[in-house]
Amino acid sequence: MNDLAELTARMRTFTEERDWRRFHDLKSLTLALTGEVGEVAELVQWLPASAAEGDIDARLRERLGDELADVLLYLVRLADVVGVDLGAEATKKLATNESRFPVDGHRGVAPDRR
């Protein structure tokens, strides 16, 4: 299951079957998402720089996969609750960034936030 719409529908069904809709509001889902991102950060905070190139062991990769899945599921649920088409918005944002940061002039250069 890689389709975002299918994942959204499954999350909605999962929530409704458990009568959890009342717990899935903007604030609660945002805080839950933030907590899960924190768990990802906790796994990588003391890794050496070589880990940035993917030099991690199988156990850490498995744990990261589990936490990243939590992040994705909360993000998908949050987008559904607030009525945002996450796929469309991500596509639009990527197009904006492609225009904002063309390859010429930005290759290998961190974006200037000023």
How are the SSEs ordered, and which strands pair?
Elements (H helix, E strand, L loop, with lengths): L3 H14 L8 H19 L13 H25 L3 H15 L14
Short characterization:
The protein is mostly helical and 114 residues long. The protein has four helices and no strands. The longest helix is centred in the middle third of the chain and has 25 residues.
Structure description:
Pfam families: MazG. This is NTP pyrophosphatase (Non-canonical NTP hydrolase). There is one protein chain. This protein has a single domain (4-99), classed as Orthogonal Bundle (Helix Hairpins), CATH 1.10.287.1080. The chain is 64% helix and 0% strand. With 114 residues, it is mainly alpha-helical. It contains four helices and no strands. Helix 1 (4-17) packs across helix 3. The mean pLDDT is 92.
Helix content: 55-70%
Q: What do the pLDDT scores average to? A: 92
Task: Catalogue the unreliable spans.
Answer: none
Measured between the Cα atoms of the first and last residue, the distance is 40 Å
Largest beta-sheet details: none
Order of helices and strands: HHHH
Shape: globular
Report the CATH architecture.
Orthogonal Bundle
How large, in whole angstroms, is the Cα Rg?
17 Å
Counted beta strands: 0
Assign the structural class, choosing from mainly alpha, mainly beta, alpha/beta, alpha+beta, or little secondary structure.
mainly alpha
Strand content: under 5%
Put simply, the count of helices is 4
CATH class: Mainly Alpha
In the CATH hierarchy, the third-tier topology is known as Helix Hairpins
